[in-house]
Specification:
Blueprint lengths: L1 E4 L6 H14 L4 E5 L4 E5 L5 H10 L26
Antiparallel strand pairs: 1-3, 2-3
Helix pairs in contact: 1-2
């Protein structure tokens, strides 16, 4: 699970653009966005966050630097989303 800080997301269009950008890198990635907190969580087969960060930036969003290591997936059984 990768976490990204994307403060300039403001609407559903932003969520869709970021989700499409990530899908272009990993079509099987699970993406969850929390607009209120400016967080993008990505459960991906990609080993390094940089490819995903570059994809989000290429879609036109400012991505705050994040650690390269994968964070553990939160336990949110039954919610249908990877967001905590």
């Amino acid at each position: 699970m990768f976490r990204f800080r994307v403060d300039d997301m403001t609407c559903a269009h932003c969520v869709n653009a970021i989700t499409r950008a990530i899908a272009a890198v990993d079509a099987d990635a699970e993406v969850c966005v929390d607009l209120a907190q400016g967080l993008v969580l990505v459960d991906s087969r990609i080993e390094r966050a940089e490819a995903l960060r570059v994809a989000i930036a290429a879609a036109g969003y400012a991505v705050a630097p994040m650690a390269e290591t994968k964070a553990p997936k939160p336990d949110v059984r039954g919610t249908g989303c990877c967001c905590p």
